[in-house]
Each structure stands twice: as C-alpha cells, then as structure tokens.
Amino acid sequence: MISFQNVAVRYPLGNIALDGATFEIEENEFVYLVGPSGAGKTTILRLILHDLVPTEGAITIDDIEFSSKKFNQTAQLRQKIGVVFQDFKILPDDNVFENVAISMEIKGYPESEIRKQVEEALSLTGIFDKKMLFPAQLSAGEIQRIAISRAIVGNRKILLADEPTGNLDPKTAWDIMRIFKKLGKNKTILFATHNTDIVNSMRRRVLVLKDGHIIKDKKKGGYRQ
Amino acid sequence: MNSIFTSLRRTPYQTFAALSVLFFTLLLSGGIFITLSFLQGLLNYVETRPRVIVYFQVKTPEKDIFAIRDKIKATNKATEITYISQKEAYKIYKKSTENDPLLLEMTSPDILPASLEIDAIKPEYLPEIAEFVSGMPGVDEVQYQKDIINNLLNLTSTIRKTASFFFAYLMVMSIIVLTTTLSFKIALKRDEIQVLKLLGATNSYIRAPFVNESITLGILATVFANTILIGLMLTLNAVLTNFFAGIPPLTLFIGTVSLQVWPFNLVFILFTLGVTSIFSLFITLVSSYTATNRYL
C-alpha cells in the first residue's frame, strides 16, 4: 500500500533528514516509527502527506507515485490520510465538534453522516461532553483527543500519528493507545513515538530510525533505546 | 448562510470597510450609468435633428427629383425624405415673410427651388448622403449643418470615452481596495488555510467561504445602492417631467434592442439593477480570487 524506494531528503546546506529509506507497508498494517528526536520520523510522515518532496527516490501509495513536485493531486491523496499532528493543528475559532467535522466536510459527506461519525469519534476519544467547547477552554490532553477524533472520521484509509501520546498523562496515553489498537483492524497506521513502553506493549512492526537512516525493521518486535 | 454572517460579524471593521467601498462604487457607477444612459438617449434624439437639404434647379422636372429620392432611399441610410415642391416652398416663404409684404411682392413660386429634406439614420451618414446627391443632374445646392454634426459626434465620442475610463477606474480601484481588505482577513486565517490543505481540502473548498462572503457583501451593497438609486430616479421623474416637457421619450440602443431611458420606467430600473449586480459580482469574484490565490 505504501512504498518507499531509496527515498532521501537532503537540504541545501548538507543537512540530511532521511537517506536511502526503503520499506513497504501493507494494507491495515500497524507500524511504529521509533527513534530519537531528529531521527527522521516526522520527515517520513510529511513525505507520505506530500507536505515534503523527496530529493531522491520514489514514494507510492496505492500504486500512485507522487514523489515529484509536479504531482497535482495532493488534495485527493491527503483525503485518504488522517493525521494526528505533533502540534495538534486545531482550528482555534471552531468548537470541538466543528474541528472534527471539518475533516468530513472537506470530503463532501452529507450533514447527517458527519453528525453520526463525529459523535461516535468524540465518544470513542472521551470528549463527547465537551463538543461545544472551544480549544482555548480545553487542556492539552483534550486537544490531543480532538486531533485524534479528526483523524479517524471520514473513512480515511491511512492514519499517521506523530507523537500522539506526547502530551498526555500515562493513563490517558494508554486510553489513546487502546483507541489506536481498535482502529488498527481496518486502517493502515504509522505511529511515530519514542515512548518505549507503548511500543513494547503492542507487538507490532517497528521501523527504527537514527540520523535519517532506517537501522532496523522488526516485523513484530519491541524497542529499547 | 449562518456561517457567512458569523464570519462577517467576527470581523466588523473589515466588513464595514469592504461594504462601504462596494456601496460607494456601486452607487457612483449606478449614478454614472443612469446619467450616461439619459445623455446618450438625449444625444440619440438630438442627433436625428440635423438633415441634408437638396435644392434643385428651378426647371428640374418632378419625375427627376423623385428618381433621385428613390436612389437615396435605396442606400438605406435615410429614415425619412420629404419632398418640398416649388408651390410648397412659396407657401413656407409666404408665411415666413408675412410681416414684410415688399419681399413677398418681389417673389413668385417659379423662382423658388423644389427641395428634398433628408433625415439620416445616423449623423455619420449625412456627409455621405450629401456627397452622393451633389453630383446628380438637376441638383443646384446641397446643404447640411456640418459643424453641428461634427460637434455632436465629438461630444458623443468624448462622453463615451470618459465614461469607459471612469468605469474602468472605479472598477480597478474597488477591486484593489476589496482585495486588500480581503487579503488582510485571509492573512489572519493563514494558519487555518494551511491546516485545511494538510487535511486534504481542495483550493475551491478553501476559497469558497471567502468568495461567498464577498458575494454576500456585494449583494448587500447592491441592495443598498439600488435603494438609493431607485429613490433618486423616482424623485427625478417627478421633478424633471415639467422641465423636459417638450422632449419625447428618450431611447437608448443596445445592439438591436431599444431601451426607453426617459421618463424613468420599471424596465430601465430593472436594467440598472442588473447592470449594478453584474458589476458587483465581477468586482467581488475578481477580488476574492485574487486575494485567496496568494495563500493557495
């Protein structure tokens, strides 16, 4: 489903964000991207989202190659992908419900379907009671839940999560992980984290990154820093 | 619709600025359009007044004169050709000199020439008709008010050019002001636009609220401006009816369609509403597309 062939991202001053990354991810596979800060985890997620264009190599999703700057179907590609951003990227002027609903409005869903899916997602992430509140009235953990809810609605086939438990207390983090475990049955998930406990709790495929290189690809493994 | 008005309420100063600019542009443009339509109608009427008068030698037989009249008709450049015979010319002369019997005694019907008075479809045709008939047998003299026609043509052309320039200037100015106002508004939502793009929003989806907002402003401005313009037209109709009592209904020709511009009537009012609406739609669409393009 997702294929990276010798993908590299090099910046003009010689900085290497990713080098020679080659891997394939099957449909409905759950993959952890692990490694220290600056290892290249976010770079891989941004490449999949076509928010960054590789300087070398080829990336394909569902056999559509989009490594070129000239690729002009970015919006259609992104509509297949739900993302939990590291910095949330929540709309400050919209309430919780609107923030989640936007993900489906973009795809042109009817209002009744939007209401149904958004309310389900908010119940799943445990913030249904706060659906009319605005981000300024919520804690970081609650905002994180909005971001997760937004990523899982709208039948997006791929889910990218960049440190989705980073701002959460251990209990909430485990709650969130349970949500991802449920979602993993019918979505392809790339989960970037450096939380070893979380990785080790679920025996899933792990791609270990260091200094822009994939140093290990464990099919069902754990991770030790 | 609710979201549009919510967004407009959230930025009251920018909304007021954009609405004011649009309102004044449409009010001015509408006012200019009405004035120019009226002037053009008046010019169309005045332009039909000058005519070519062809005087014939006194011994020219009537059948030759009629032959010339038919030839002029065949050019399709004349609206009306009136034949004034020697007897009729004498009657006219008699009437105009009734206070001076001595002058009348010295004149007989035989020495006054017969003539043709020709009204042209357009004033541009008058010199052509004059040239066409001047070489024909029996024609003694051809007269037409060359200076008046040239002045009228110059005036019409100047008014058209000035109006085009003024319309273009108004349009460009309002597009610039509206684009700047909208850009400011969009700049405040730059981060939001980036998020929407990352979530897979198409350019048209991102653009839609801004385009809808500016079209709503355009509709409001059109309604406000036209309320004043219609009030003005109804007032002028009442005030100027006596002043223009001797003038027949004035007509504007748009292609093959004729539109009565005076007295102001429902069709003309609706036409003005249509023109200002199209003008408003053009300004709002161009402005919102230009403003959003910078962030897409």
Walkthrough of the structure:
The complex is a heterodimer of chains A (225) and B (296). In chain A, helix 6 links the parallel strand 7 and strand 8 (188-193). Chain A has a domain at 30-50 and 76-204: P-loop containing nucleotide triphosphate hydrolases (Rossmann fold, 3-Layer(aba) Sandwich). Helix content of chain A is 32%, strand content 28%. In chain A, helix 3 packs across helix 4. Chain A has 7 helices and 10 strands. With 296 residues, chain B is of the alpha+beta class. Chain B contains 10 helices and 6 strands. The two termini of chain B are 24 Å apart. The model of chain B has no long low-confidence stretch (mean pLDDT 85). The chains are: A alpha/beta (225), B alpha+beta (296).
Secondary-structure-derived class of chain B: alpha+beta
Broad shape of chain B: elongated
End-to-end C-alpha gap of chain A:
29 Å
Strand order in the sheet with the most strands of chain B: 2-3-1-4
Helix count from the secondary structure assignment of chain A: 7
Radius of gyration of chain A: 17 Å
User: Helix and strand succession of chain A?
Assistant: EEEHEEHEHHHEHEHEE
Terminal residue distance of chain B: 24 Å
- Percent in helix of chain A: 25-40%
Strand content of chain A: 25-35%
Low-confidence stretches of chain A: none
Strand order of the largest sheet of chain A: 6-7-8-3-9-10
CATH fold annotation of the domain at 30-50 and 76-204 in chain A: Rossmann fold
Percent helix of chain B, as a range, is: 55-70%
Order of helices and strands of chain B: HHEHEHHEHEHHHEEH
Query: What form of chain A results from the Cα inertia axes?
Result: globular
- Largest interface pair: A-B, 22 and 13 residues
CATH superfamily of the domain at 30-50 and 76-204 in chain A: P-loop containing nucleotide triphosphate hydrolases
